[in-house]
Design brief:
Number of domains: 1
Shape: globular
Largest sheet: none
Helix content: over 70%
Radius of gyration: 23 Å
Distance between the termini: 27 Å
Number of helices: 11
Low-confidence stretches: 187-193
Number of strands: 0
Length: 323
């Protein structure tokens, strides 16, 4: 559900944020479940995603299963819960960021990173003189390092929250501080929105491809001193990138997803009762999440995030049961 919201709002670093929230839920789950339950839950999540969002990319399903496997590994022992939560969060969120870098490298090859280094040297030479661009650290390396470092910080933050969450929830339960949930505020049903299958150039990889190609072509036009060799490399990169995207969206991805669907259809029979039960709770969970988000407007920054996460989980767990 959260993935759909982040996608609709086009929030930056949505992959890192979604991974962070997954870490919080998996960490909390690890305290009250036996071994194998986290992976089972991940399989059920994939089944539900495949049911309600058939056009979700295959990589999204792989990410969920990977998180489940890592969760089983990091929480194999329930000692050192806070430390495990932080390490688990950092690894999961960094993998989310590394996936984007790997995708760019596969699509564009090393020519993309070499071009960034070349253009950065040209820009620095223009502003600060030719000698200033010598012996500089690779600009592409700086960008990648900064990107990964930001994901490490995001992962550490969500790991810290995951480690603290059981205390927050326990404190609220002990103090009976669960908020009053007035269902009458949300009596109407939320409209269901179905995601349509997009053309390849409207998807994120396609948009990145067209943007990068446009930037490189324009830059090379204004800097003819780069020479014919560079133009040839640029043309090869563009053709190669187009072929990679074309083969992925028209051949490889459909074949992989078809094989994946066969596996999902077989598993769906085994978990039919669980998936039906979870799907039936979606309208109520939507009301709870919207209600808590509205109530969290009273707070700011970290306090708002803490309130929203804690109150949403409390209501989801206890709104229809006694203490």
């Amino acid at each position: 559900m959260l993935g759909g919201v982040l996608h609709a709002l086009s929030i930056p670093f949505s992959g890192a944020l979604l991974s962070g929230f997954a870490v919080i839920l998996i960490s909390l789950m690890s305290l009250f479940s036996s071994r194998g339950e986290i992976l089972k839950a991940s399989i059920i999540v994939v089944l539900i995603k495949a049911t309600i969002s058939p056009y979700v990319p295959l990589t999204a399903h792989v990410a969920v299963l990977t998180q489940g496997l890592l969760g089983e590994a990091f929480f194999f022992s329930k000692k050192f819960f806070k430390t495990s939560s932080i390490l688990f969060a950092v690894v999961v969120v960094v993998l989310s960021g590394a996936q984007r870098i790997l995708t760019l490298t596969i699509v564009f090859g090393n020519t993309l990173w070499n071009s960034i280094d070349t253009y950065s040297r040209i820009l620095i030479a223009e502003f600060f003189g030719k000698n200033s661009s010598q012996n500089l650290i690779s600009a592409s390396l700086v960008i990648i390092s900064a990107y990964i470092s930001l994901h490490v910080l995001i992962g550490f933050f969500f790991g810290f929250v995951a480690g603290k969450l059981p205390v927050w929830i326990d404190k609220n339960i002990t103090e009976k501080a669960i908020i009053d949930y007035d269902q009458s505020e949300f009596e109407g049903k939320f409209p269901e929105t179905k995601r349509k299958k997009k053309k390849w150039w409207k998807k994120k990889p396609g948009k990145i491809f067209l943007t990068v190609v446009l930037i490189l072509v324009v830059f090379s036009y204004f800097h003819p001193e780069l020479g014919k060799d560079y133009s040839i490399k640029l043309i090869i990169m563009v053709v190669r990138s187009f072929l990679v995207l074309f083969l992925w969206f028209t051949l490889i991805s459909p074949l992989l997803y078809k094989a994946f669907r066969k596996i999902i259809d077989k598993k769906q029979i085994s978990y039919l009762a669980e998936t039906d039960k979870i799907l039936s709770t979606f309208p109520e969970l939507k009301r709870i999440s919207q209600y808590c988000w509205k109530k969290s407007l009273e707070f700011k920054g970290y306090a708002r995030l803490k309130y929203f996460i804690t109150s949403t989980l409390l209501l989801a767990l206890f709104s229809n049961s006694e203490y």
